[in-house]
Amino acid sequence: MSRWRDIAAEGLWRNNPGLVQLLGLCPLLAVTSSVVNGLGLGLATTATLVVSGLTVSAVRGLVRPEIRIPVFVLVIACTVTIIELLMSAWLHDLYKVLGIFIPLIVTNCAIMGRAEAFASRNPVPAAVLDGLMMGLGFTGVLVALGALRELAGHGTLLDHAELLLGPLGEGLRLEIIQGYRGFLVAVLPPGAFIGLGLLIALKNVIDTRRGRRSVAVPVHAHGHGSA
Amino acid sequence: MRRFETATSPHLPPRDSVPALMRRVLYALAPGAALQAWHFGWGVVVQLLLAAALALAAEAAVLVLRRRPARRALADGSVLVTAALLALALPPYAPWWLTTVAVLSAVVLAKHLYGGLGYNPFNPAMVGYVVALIAFPRELTQWPAPHALAAPPGLDMALGLIFGGAQLPDALTAATPLDHVRTGLAMNRTLTELGAEPVMGRFGGKGWEWVAGGYLAGGLWLAWRRAIDWRIPSAFAAGLALPAMVAWGLDPDGHPSPLFHLLSGGAMLGAFFIATDPVTAATTPRGRLLYGAGAGLLTFLIRTFGGYPDGVAFAVLLMNMAAPTLDQLTRPRAFGEGR
Question: Nearest C-alpha of chain B: how many angstroms from A22?
Fold first, then answer.
């Protein structure tokens, strides 16, 4: 049981792809100009991580080590293509907003990293859970950064939620700061770098505070570090 | 107290302490700031006071949060220099919230998040200015007309414009000389035509050339007192003026003169007061020449080909990034060290 909890803690916090491994920074920085964009790309990445983790883990006994990387690439590329087509069919507006960053999930090194470091060495259930948790951890960072930038940049949250949720999302737009003039830097690329830096700093502060409170926490030494 | 043996002569007298240096920089800014206030009105004074108060408050708050001794850092004057440079770079009638954002970005983001005075890789004042420029491009173009064209707003009007949310009336605004030349050239007009318009003075813009002259005088005094290294401003001026001279020589109606480049926008303030920041500039003699020349050249390139009318802030920030590498590449050879 503690193994499952461990995998979850790794993905969601301790070895978070966005805050600790710093993998997949290109989409992380590029699409997080709003909550909805971040959430959309995060969910697509999560789906890719789960499916590719499942497939890679399932075929791990069949693939010779010499050719494992090309096989992983093929698996990931297939998964992303399927997800891209599905999004184009059902979430077409969001698909248009996210544009090139959906096919680029293939090149997100977080996915390759998990396939190589975890899925190819662990049984299917663990690999699926790891994919899900890593994906949710990544999504969490995308949403937090998107929220930070959208709030600072436009004074709103969940603008254009209908792109993701259809008619359900029509009324979700929250205007947090009334009559806000907008702070363009937050939405532009510099805001992404500054925002991510602040989030990483925040995580480190929380970890330091926690470490100070309970010094006796055992340090987990895991073989699967960052790729 | 234990006494240490003093080595034999020759002794080098200690260079200026930080507070003495910063005080000198503030004195040297005075003539330029006074001329700027004369030409553009009370807004300059109000902005200086506002920026100084905000900067001191922000510095004190961050120091308390960081559990550092606040009094000494507040008294060293470095944050006042940052505030003064920022206030002089921003338009004099910019609303208070714009100045607040710029000052907070400078003091909190650019200075203290990197570790405080001495650790910041980027010039704080220029980070604040660039944040304001990218975030509020329209407000940053709202420069008032110089004294020679229209009487600048009085004190009560200045307060209304900065704190009351009033807009500067169109009759009192004027394009900055760099803006004027840029848009004029984009409309296929020649510099001979553009130079005949009332905004333009003898060398730069009307009023602006005097302000630049004030900064030049203050800067020369600083260089004479060895508070700054002459290499950086000289190389900056050369890096800006030489390419400008080539372009002007080839096509005098399509490119402004080197003197215009030197006396417009932030060139003089940048060359003597911003590029020479001891923390963020290069430190070796040859490195400083390259650093200054690079900043000047980048200013010319951004003004001529870039998307913004002035490029001093971006040029300085880019060269800040290059400064550590320049220092490493131009490390002076110690006596007796092999090549």
Answer: 20
Residue B316 φ/ψ, nearest 5 degrees:
-65, -40
A157 membership: H or E segment, kind and range: strand A156-157
pLDDT digits (tens, 9 = 90+) for A95-111: 888 878 888 888 788 88
Q: Do A184 and B109 lie within an 8 Å CB cutoff?
A: no
Q: At what angle do helices B78-89 and B124-135 cross, to 10 degrees?
A: 30
In the three-class reduction of DSSP (H, G, I as helix; E, B as strand; rest coil), residue A31 is classed as: coil
Closest in A183, A197, A201 to B135, CB measured:
A183
Residues written for chain B: 339
Among B110, B116, B83, which Cα is nearest to B99's?
B83
Name the region of A166 (left: φ>0; alpha: ψ -120 to 50; beta: rest).
left
Judge whether A177 is closer than 8 Å to chain B, CB to CB. no
Reply yes or no on whether the pLDDT at A223 is more than 50: no
pTM summary value: 0.84
The residue of chain A with its CA nearest to that of B97 is A181
Out of A184, A197, A201, name the one closest to residue B134 (CB): A184
In chain A, what residues touch B67 (CB-CB under 8 Å)? none
The answer for residues whose C-beta is within 8 angstroms of residue B235's C-beta and 6 or more apart is B288, B289, B290, B291, B292, B293, B296
Residues 6 or more apart from B91 whose CB is under 8 A from it?
Answer: B43, B139, B140, B141, B142, B143, B144
Q: Is the Cβ pair B109, A194 closer than 8 Å?
A: yes
CA A87 to chain B, closest CA, distance in angstroms equals 33
* CA pair distance A119, B152, nearest whole angstrom: 70
CB of A200 within 8 Å of a chain B CB? The answer is: no
Q: Given CB atoms, is B321 within the 8 Å cutoff of chain A?
A: no
SS3 content of chain A, % helix, strand, coil (to 5): 75, 0, 25
Contacts of B135 in chain A (CB under 8 A): 183-186
Closest partner residue to B135 among A184, A197, A201, by Cβ? A184
Q: For each of chain B's 339 residues, which pLDDT tens digit applies?
A: 556 666 677 777 666 688 888 999 999 999 999 999 999 989 999 999 999 999 999 999 999 988 888 887 788 889 999 999 999 999 999 999 999 999 999 999 999 988 888 899 999 999 999 999 988 888 888 888 887 777 778 888 888 888 887 777 777 787 788 888 888 888 888 888 887 777 787 777 888 889 999 999 999 999 998 889 999 999 999 999 999 999 999 988 888 889 999 998 889 999 999 999 989 999 999 999 999 999 999 999 999 988 888 889 999 999 999 999 999 999 888 888 776
